[in-house]
Amino acid sequence: MRATDFEYRHQTLLHLVVVGAAFLTYLFEPDDIVWAFVKDHTTYRAFLERLVFGTGALLILGSAVLRTWASAYRGLGAADGATLFVCNGPYRYLQYPLYLGRILFALGLGLLAPVLGNVILLAGETLLLLRLFGRDYQDAAPEHLRQYREQVPRFLPSLHPRFPADGFRAHWGAALRKEASKWGLAVTMIVFTLTLRDRVAEILAGASFVVWVALNIPDLVRSGRKEHA
Q1: Res. 102 pLDDT band, cuts 50 70 90
Q2: pLDDT at residue 97 above 80?
């Protein structure tokens, strides 16, 4: 199971397609997965909603933190031709922090979708990540990654760094721009947990997407040019 060149170059696009397909299920199911299960509980309904959506907010916030941290240090490793794989940031604790961040995000965001949408989101993201993982693992040069793979867990982070840092300077500005939508949706989920008002969540989610597009227009344009070069 290995991602194609198109899948690898357009990960964000395919992620948005899966998210869009998940929320289009509102055309067939009017209730999100949480409301579908708690609407018959008249006494503790609001408490249960806030408990579940609060958990979702923590998942999305965790995703935003992890993916921003990982994006700030992304690009290290075998590409520099070194004889020993080098890393920094979260890559010292686990091999695939960006993928773990996507899983946390899908779990949290799925709580806002209908039951069918939740299934589409989780299944679609899992399939995409498995294919990306297959490509990453097969394409990497074994001589550069052997020690790293032996010492650092793949997805479940270690409590302590398992590989020496290389002193690479983090690019926090670029990372925050790239992950702006995750931070916006974390705020959306927190506000929705407090208010339980659908309209508020819709406005904030839409604003998060618009801000993300505005901040990343140069990167999106460059990506399109590379594709047509």
Answers
A1: very high
A2: yes
Burial profile 103-138: b = 16 or more Cβ within 10 angstroms, e = fewer: bbbbbbbbbbbbbbbbebbbebbeebbebbbebbee
- In DSSP terms, which residues pair with 87 in a beta bridge? 165
Cα(153)–Cα(71) distance, integer angstroms:
18
- Most confident of the ranges 122-126, 131-135, 210-214: 122-126
List the structure tokens of 69.
């941290």
**What is the three-state SS of 124-147?**
HHHHHHHHHHHHHHHHCCHHHHHH
Please, what is the Cα angle at 167 between 163 and 169, to 5 degrees? 125
| pLDDT tens sequence across 190-210 | 999 999 999 999 999 999 999
Instruction: Give the three-state DSSP class for 81.
Output: coil
> How many residues in the chain?
229
Q: Where are the domains of the chain?
A: 5-171
For the packed helices 45-72 and 97-109, what is the interaxial angle rounded to 10 degrees? 160
Position 228 confidence tier, pLDDT thresholds 50, 70, 90: very low
- From the list 125, 124, 78, the residue with the least C-alpha distance to 98 is 125
Cα 216 from Cα 152, distance rounded (Å): 32
